[in-house]
Specification:
This protein has 312 residues and is an alpha/beta fold. Helices cover 38% and strands 14% of the residues. It has a domain of 115 residues: 2-Layer Sandwich (Nucleotidyltransferase, domain 5).
Length: 312
């Protein structure tokens, strides 16, 4: 069996009509060269009942979902596969209420939890950093603060944005919530998002000073006192990404994203944006499944607890 992805909904329904078909597909995504025991590294496989797998060397029993985001799930894999197809086949994604309706779930919480588990699989472990010429700036996510604008805002979520230049267009992007706009935070984000040796283009904010001593070529366009249209023209890519992000949060998610969950919505937006030119929704389905079997389990209690502090 190969791991070719279905190109249409009809092909998807025919391919994954049973639990066994879904399990076999995950097997080939998780162990493309054949089964490897997670305990001893053995390659001999005995298939037990109810989808269990037994190592022929050490007799360790496992399943294809153990150690993945599907671990301990009460939902059939057929439901998970349909949820992933729905998430990847819609250009702007899906919210929990919409997924609940499509899957016929009786519980909103179940659909909400499934989406959050999938968001944790949207960041590929060890992914490459941006390179070339990269614009970097920050935006604030949240409502209006009376008497405060820009970097003086206090209660909004602060998100750093990095966007590769691709001619006149935008290449890949990186987004992350940061605690403040001080030098340590700005430098840490750039180091996380951008490959050293790249050109980093920023405005004149002092938090970015010193990047040229950290292995970057730092290009500065001072914007203090200039109208907003000039700022947009000087750094069009990060401003365009920022506008699209805010529109997506307000549109698909109705602006109901909590601060302690924002990091994972940023991961989803990044996943979608960086694959926006893909002509095959089926390929996105396959990529998300591949990453889902590579990330650690995310129990409900951990998801609900969220991450109150920025990860950068």
């Amino acid at each position: 069996m190969d791991t070719e992805y279905p190109g249409t909904l009809l092909a998807f329904e025919a391919r994954f009509a049973t639990e066994g078909a879904c399990r076999d597909y995950l097997m080939h995504l998780r162990w493309p060269e054949g089964f490897v025991c997670p305990r001893c590294g053995g390659v001999k496989l005995w298939r037990a009942t109810r989808g269990r797998l037994m190592c022929g060397d050490c007799r360790y029993t496992t399943t294809v979902t153990a150690g993945t985001i599907f671990q301990d799930t009460h939902q059939p894999l057929r439901v998970w596969f349909r949820a992933i197809w729905q998430v990847t086949s819609q250009k702007t994604g899906a919210n929990a209420l919409g997924l609940q309706r499509v899957l016929g779930q009786g519980s909103y919480v179940t659909a909400w939890t499934m989406l959050h588990k999938l968001r944790r699989a949207m960041v590929r472990p060890g992914r490459d950093r941006l390179r070339g010429r990269v614009e970097v700036d920050e935006i604030y996510i949240g409502g209006q603060e009376v008497g405060r604008e820009g970097r003086t805002a206090q209660t909004k979520a602060l998100v750093a944005v990095a966007a590769e230049e691709d001619g006149e267009g935008i290449g890949r992007i990186r987004l992350a919530r940061i605690p403040n706009v001080k030098k340590d935070s700005c430098h840490r984000f750039v180091a996380w998002a951008v490959e050293r040796g790249s050109v980093v283009h920023t405005d004149g904010w002092t938090g970015y000073l010193g990047l040229d001593t950290q292995g970057y070529f730092h290009e500065v366009t001072p914007l203090d006192g200039r109208p907003k249209t000039t700022a947009t023209e000087a750094m069009p890519r990060v401003h365009r990404v920022s506008a699209l992000l805010k529109r997506w949060l307000l549109g698909t998610h109705q602006g109901a994203v909590r601060a302690n969950q924002l990091d994972y919505y940023l991961d989803e937006f990044t996943f979608r944006f960086n694959r926006r030119t893909s002509r095959s929704r089926g390929k996105l389905f396959c990529r998300l499944l591949q990453q889902a079997v590579q990330v650690d389990p995310a129990p409900y209690k951990r998801i609900v607890g969220g991450n109150p502090t920025p990860k950068i």
